[in-house]
Design brief:
Layout (H helix, E strand, L loop, with lengths): L2 E6 L2 E6 H5 L14 H18 L3 E5 L6 H9 L3 E7 L3 H13 L6 E4 L3 H7 L4 E6 L9 H7 E11 L2 H4 L4 H8 L9 H19 L3 E9 L4 E8 L2 H8 L2 E7 L2 E6 L9 E5 L6 H10 L8 H10 L7 E2 L12 H10 L4 E3 L6 E4 L3 H9 L4
Helix pairs in contact: 2-3, 2-11, 5-6, 9-10, 11-12
Length: about 375
């Protein structure tokens, strides 16, 4: 295995040459440089959560690969006092140990070579944060991850199987996430809500509830960061945030209620907020200096978390074949006294609390 040095955040890491020059999935140890943004925002999330806790945090990364995420946490998250970095792959384990020593963080980062699920099962109620970052779906790891998180702790997870979650493979989504989905204009948001609903149902099976702090779509992956509350009341409260999405004649919306689904609707999905406005504001405060590039996404999320579910696209309110610019749509809608928000799901997407038929009539009656 030929190694080259890469820099990411405050970390210096050795990575397989194939990971930088070819397909990362074919490298002997997985490292995807395209996920640097994911890891940087995760640093901001943990810095924010640490501020709220006001004490040292125990963090577990059960699928650590090169160890870059755990090393960055140790160097960039002030409250990271103990980090359990694990990978079952022997080459990953050896490379991770070398990277931990290279960055001088062996006093904070413990390196393990274990089966991820069995390791997390042994960490019952031990971790303040469990960060599951697999290649594909996080679903096989969630039961053990939820047991490892303490009451009030944070579970972070990444999903890269967007084609499944967004309706390209309905049968696979049904078997993997227990949800029916179809391709719709708002598929990017629908997939994220399917993922959150699957996590909520898995937590409820363990008498726990979730509260999304920050969740988003970013090109080729979904990322969720939720608080886990281990009591029956929280589990029931989370179930109250499940429901279904409908899409008919361009109109869309959500129907609250689970498990019974209205005929033809898609879900179950998470119908509550995708994140916490106050927490997103704290993350925005942390996005200074070397993290400045993340402000635009966080600013959009901060506003979008106030919006109702399911976005529209500007081409859906086109007039005589002319598609209006997003800024103009927002200006016209707000001019009528309605709230309107841009969405991070698309540069041409927006959210409002009105029906599509109203929006089309409004755009047709306005000179622009």
């Amino acid at each position: 295995m030929r190694l080259v040095e890469a820099r990411e955040g405050h970390a210096r890491i050795l990575v397989p040459e194939e990971a930088l020059e070819g397909d990362p999935s074919k490298a002997p140890v997985f490292y995807n440089p395209r996920m640097e943004r994911n890891r940087t925002i995760s640093v901001l999330v943990l810095r924010s959560y640490g501020r709220l806790l006001g004490r040292g945090m125990t963090i577990c990364e059960p699928l650590a690969g090169t160890g870059v995420r755990s090393i960055r946490y140790s160097l960039e998250v002030p409250h990271a006092s103990r980090i359990i970095a694990n990978d079952a792959n022997w080459q990953a384990y050896r490379l991770m140990k070398a990277n931990v020593e290279l960055n001088g963080v062996s006093d904070v980062v413990e390196v393990h070579r274990r089966d991820a699920v069995s390791l997390m099962a042994e960490l019952w109620d031990t971790c303040d944060v469990v960060d599951v970052d697999p290649f594909g779906t996080p679903m096989p790891f969630l039961p053990a991850a939820i047991t490892a998180v303490r009451h009030g702790g944070m579970l972070c997870a990444t999903a890269t199987d967007l084609a499944v979650l967004m309706g390209n493979y309905p049968r696979k989504c049904l078997s993997r996430y227990g949800a029916y989905v179809a391709r719709v204009p708002f598929s990017r948001e629908l997939g994220l809500r399917v993922l959150l609903a699957a996590v909520a149902r898995q937590a409820a099976a363990l008498d726990a509830g979730i509260e999304p702090m920050l969740s988003f779509w970013d090109g080729h992956y979904y990322r969720i960061c939720v608080l886990v509350y281990k009591d029956v009341t929280s589990a029931k409260d989370a179930m109250d945030n499940l429901g279904y999405a409908y899409h008919s004649g361009g109109e869309r919306g959500v129907v609250v209620g689970y498990p019974k689904a209205p005929r033809g609707d898609m879900g179950p999905i998470w119908v509550g907020k995708l994140g916490d406005v106050e927490f997103a504001g704290i993350a925005l405060e942390e996005a200074a200096g070397p993290y400045q590039k993340q402000r635009r996404l966080l600013e959009t999320l901060y506003c979008e978390y106030m919006a109702p579910p399911l976005y529209y696209m500007t081409h859906e309110v086109a007039v005589d074949g002319r598609e209006p610019p997003l800024g103009l749509v927002l200006e016209i809608v707000r001019g009528t006294g309605h709230d309107a928000w841009a969405t991070h799901f698309s540069s041409r997407g927006f959210k409002v609390g009105t029906r599509l038929s109203y929006l089309r009539a409004l755009m047709s009656s306005t000179t622009w």
